Amino acid sequence: MSSRSEPNGLQVERLARELTQQVYHLTKKPGFAKDYGLKGQIQDAAGSSMHNIAEGFDSETNAEFIRFLRYAKRSCTEVQTCPPALSLRRGGRGELYISLDEKYISPKEFKDVYEQARRIPQKRDCRSWIYQLFVRPGGHSAPSDST
Asked: Higher pLDDT residue, 68 or 28?
């Protein structure tokens, strides 16, 4: 397996933790706190980004590690956009957009959280791990699933 350090020392893990903290802070606001469905969904997605990075470190194989990194990336996207069931009920808008439209959050808060969620999948730690783990010692790419 490619060399990995502890997840707590990585910038991508810190960004995921900051995202989770931002989301939990926003969902404590009076209007947001009472929208239990939206609140729970966005909190779960934010926390999942952090949990999947940590769980990936405990994986047994490179393929499993990559799978968890991709789950973390998808969780960040979920913070920005809504899963199908909630999206259909809410007119197809993303979680942050709903939060903004309902005036639970300000435009600045929206932008800050949206950008934080965008930074994690773009972080070099996350992308380079996936790339390095797909490259075999001989320099050949793995036959399936490219990044």
From this structure: 28
